[in-house]
Design a protein that fits this description.
Distance between the termini: 55 Å
Radius of gyration: 27 Å
Strand order of the largest sheet: 5-8-11-4-12
Strand content: 5-15%
Number of helices: 26
Oligomer: single chain
Helix content: 40-55%
Structural class: alpha/beta
Length: 572
């Protein structure tokens, strides 16, 4: 294993993130010669010992130097300028295309280094190519990606290991490695080698057939969305917002191609494609909300929030008292889940979607009861192993149709995913949603919101854990300094007070001692008779939150820029 570790580290030294950012087109791809050292040659050939990505032509890299194939005829969506050939989805000139490809590679590397696998899934770059890149930029002592890159092979392994079907690549890697910390050697010995033997991977090879199917429109038409999924992550990462996007993706999935008119379907596909390229596009956000609301009014989408007192009687069915003519009567009340199931059973050619916000806040056993089994994909009505049960109040025979999709959200700061009911965990696919710094403004009244949030979260992760980080959506509406003051005084600092149980020393540390938290020595001798209370902590510091009206841009800049902090100290 020593040579593999050496190769892994050598690549990371040779092609560190800064070098990739400064990489030229010639350094990215070159032709011939015994001493090739370009980026694509490393990925495809020099790193073969750590995972194969053979097959396909050179367009798998987005752009390549044509060499002796200069006269080859190109197909649709491809272009050349004599020296280089490229896919036009990246740009109309070789310079444009390379700039865009490099930008996406940098995104993959940064996401890999920060273990943001779900974001890698969304980056439009060749599927096998981007995951092989991501694999080689991991921490060698904390591996999160297995060195198998073809989606078809990974899905076969996921199915064989009982992890679920129709998982995306990020989900499969997360489920294969779980919460255990793997070194590179341990992952290869405990995961890759057993999988290679069990699934005969050495005989299959890995192809690039899936490499250029990147657009939301293509994905929506080709992949079947999971029946049960949970979006989980810290506060403010857009989980509830993204349930609407997931719902729209289900509506336009290939399975229900004829459920919408061609005009409606094309409009939603266009919205999704635009939001994939630019998540901040306000016009598309508004159009997405309108389409979501329209389908909610039609009864195809239902939304509910779980809470601690929510019950089976409210969710499925129950008896409720009704007062009439001075006499108490009881009637059967149908809950939201039973109602949408019945509706789904009546236009089976259409998808129906139930969104459960804050799913982990409810008592799952109490709310779902025996239905926990029925939501499992293979136990749905119409499947070979489909089941039905007799409901306790109505005595009706009841099953869950296979055109009902359940999307849940879960706030990891509220309750750890590890505490979630195991029966529920087995039946849902989990999609992690972490803070996305790239969605933020790098200059809000002189404050770099990207750097600010990144530093805040690095310190929170160090002092607590990544489940208590702060989401980007808190800062999405920050347009000026006054907005920023309100966000910190009314949202961020109260959230930190909750996270750290009023431990202001740690809150001040997270803020990098920027002056928003003020500390003073306690006046012990003035407050207490030291002869009677000598056992008390006389050195205790008293902390207060300073007035936000007095904060300037410098208080915010100090969170991520130590030089500003040092300048003030030097002046003092």
């Amino acid at each position: 294993m020593e040579d593999i570790n050496k190769l892994f580290r050598e690549f990371q030294r040779e092609w560190n993130l800064q070098k990739v950012k400064n990489m030229t087109l010639e350094e990215y791809t070159a032709v011939g010669g015994a001493n090739r050292n370009d980026f694509t040659y490393w990925i495809e050939h020099k790193l073969k010992k750590l995972g194969v990505m053979g097959g396909g032509d050179s367009f798998k890299f987005g752009i390549y130097k044509r060499g002796n194939n200069g006269g080859k005829t190109l197909g649709e969506g491809k272009k050349h300028d004599g020296e280089y050939a490229w896919l036009t989805e990246y740009g109309q000139t070789s310079e444009e295309a390379f700039k865009e490809i490099k930008n996406r590679i940098v995104q993959v590397i940064e996401c890999s280094q920060q273990n943001r696998l779900d974001e890698i899934e969304k980056i439009p770059l060749g599927d096998v190519y981007k995951w092989k890149i991501a694999f080689h930029y991991q921490d060698i002592d904390n591996i999160k990606i297995v060195n198998i890159f073809a989606k078809s092979l990974l899905q076969n392994i996921a199915k064989g290991e009982g992890l679920g079907q129709n998982l995306n690549t990020a989900q499969i890697h997360q489920k294969l490695l779980g919460d255990k910390t793997y070194t590179l050697n341990a992952m290869i010995e405990e995961k890759f080698i057993p999988f290679r033997k069990k699934y005969k991977l050495q005989n299959q090879g890995e192809t690039m057939q899936e490499s250029n199917q990147n657009s939301t429109q293509q994905d929506s038409k080709q992949s079947k969305p999971p029946l049960n999924q949970i979006l989980y992550g810290p506060p403010g990462t857009g989980k509830t917002y993204n349930t609407k996007i997931k719902a729209l993706e289900i509506l336009v999935s290939k399975e229900y191609e004829k459920a919408l008119s061609s005009g409606e379907r094309e409009e939603i596909l266009e919205i999704l494609e635009t939001l994939k390229k630019n998540p901040k596009d306000e016009n598309s956000q508004e159009r997405a909300k309108k389409n979501f609301d329209d389908n909610k009014k039609k009864g195809q989408i239902a939304f509910i929030t779980f809470h601690q007192s929510f019950s089976y009687e409210e969710f499925v069915e129950g008896i409720r008292p009704v007062l009439g003519n001075s006499q108490m009567n009881y009637e059967l009340k149908v809950g939201i889940f039973k109602d949408i199931c019945k509706r789904a059973e009546k236009n089976p050619s259409k998808p129906y979607i139930l969104i459960i916000d804050e799913i982990n806040r409810g008592n799952i056993s109490k709310i779902l009861g025996e239905l926990i089994t029925l939501i499992e994909p293979v136990k749905r009505k119409g499947e070979k192993e489909g089941l039905e049960v007799k409901l306790p109040y109505s005595q009706e025979s009841f099953g869950v149709p296979n055109n009902l999709y359940i999307i849940g959200t879960m706030n990891t700061a509220d309750r750890s995913i590890a505490l979630l009911d195991t029966a529920l965990r087995r039946r849902f696919e989990f999609i992690e949603m972490m803070p996305n710094f790239e969605l933020l403004n790098s200059n809000c009244a002189g404050v770099d919101l990207k750097k600010l949030l990144e530093k805040l979260n690095q310190r929170i992760t160090f002092l607590l854990d990544r489940e208590h980080t702060i989401g980007h959506s808190f800062f999405m509406e920050a347009k000026n300094l006054e907005n920023l003051k309100k966000i910190f005084s009314r949202k961020i600092i109260p959230l930190l007070q909750e996270y750290f149980y009023e431990d202001y020393a740690k809150i001040d540390a997270v803020l990098n001692g920027n002056g928003m938290v003020k500390s003073e020595d306690s006046n012990f001798s003035e407050l207490f008779d030291s002869s009677k209370f000598s056992d008390l902590d006389s050195e205790k510091k008293i902390y207060t939150i300073t007035d936000s009206n007095n904060w300037s841009e410098k208080e915010f800049q100090k969170i991520y820029d130590n030089a500003i902090k040092d300048k003030k100290d030097n002046e003092a």
